Amino acid sequence: MASDKPLVGVIMGSTSDREVMRGCIDLLQELDIPHEVRVLSAHRTPDLTREYAISAEDRGIEVIIAGAGWAAHLAGAIAGNTTLPVIGVPIDSSPLNGMDALLATVQMPPGIPVATVAVGSGGAKNAAILAAQILALKYSPIAENLKSYRKGITQKAAQKTDL
Ligand code: RP5
User: Fold this and answer.
1) pLDDT digits (tens, 9 = 90+) for 5-33
2) How many CA atoms lie within 13 A of 60 on its CB side?
3) Which tens digit of pLDDT belongs to each residue from 51-67?
4) What is the domain range of residue 126?
C-alpha cells in the first residue's frame, strides 16, 4: 500500500495469544495491509481497551480484529465502543479448548455484532482475510492482492487432487 498508516488494528488479550494470532499478522503482511498490534484485555486492562476502541476510528483504523481466550469479552467490549467492523477470534487457550471463547465471542446481543471466525489459528488467518475483503471494497490494491492470494490457494489445492 502507498501509505503505512494502519488500517487494521489487531488486538489480543494476552501475550500468550501471540502464537495463535501470528497467522493473522503474517497474512496481513502478505496482503500488504498496514496494521498495528496491541495487547489489551477486557478484564485486566478495561480502561485501555475502551480507550483503544473509542479512539480507533479517529486514528484511521477501519477494521479491528480481536483475539482472546477463556471468557473472551475482548471483541464484544471493543464492538460496544465503536461502530467499526469488529472481527472476533476465539482462542483455544483454556481447558475448554476455546468452546468458552467461541460462545463468549459469537453470542453478541442484537445491535452489537462481532463477526466471529473459527476457533484457533485457522480462525486467526481467516480474520485477516475477512478484514482484507472488507477493505477491498474501498482499496483496489488490496482487492488485487486478495485475488492473487485466492488464486494461489486454489492452484495449491488443485495440485493435491491425485493421491
Ligand atoms: C485471555 O486469557 C487471553 O486472551 C488469553 O487467551 C487467556 C490467558 O491469558 P494469560 O493468563 O496466558 O495471560 O484473557
Assistant:
1) 999 999 999 999 999 999 999 999 999 99
2) 8
3) 999 999 999 999 999 99
4) 8-159
Give domain status of residue 69, yes or no. Answer: yes
Q: Is 97 in the pocket of ligand 1 (CB under 6 A)?
A: no
Atom of ligand 1 nearest to the CA of 68: 4
Cα dihedral 156, 157, 158, 159 sign: positive
Mutation test residue for ligand 1: of 39, 70, 91, 121, the one with most atoms within 8 Å of CB: 70
Q: How far is the CA of 109 from the centre of ligand 1 (A)?
A: 23
Q: Is 93 in the pocket of ligand 1 (CB under 6 A)?
A: yes
Q: Which three cell numbers stand for residue 61?
A: 483504523
CATH, residue 108: 3.40.50.1970
Query: Among all chains, which residue has been given the C-alpha cell 481447558?
Result: 95
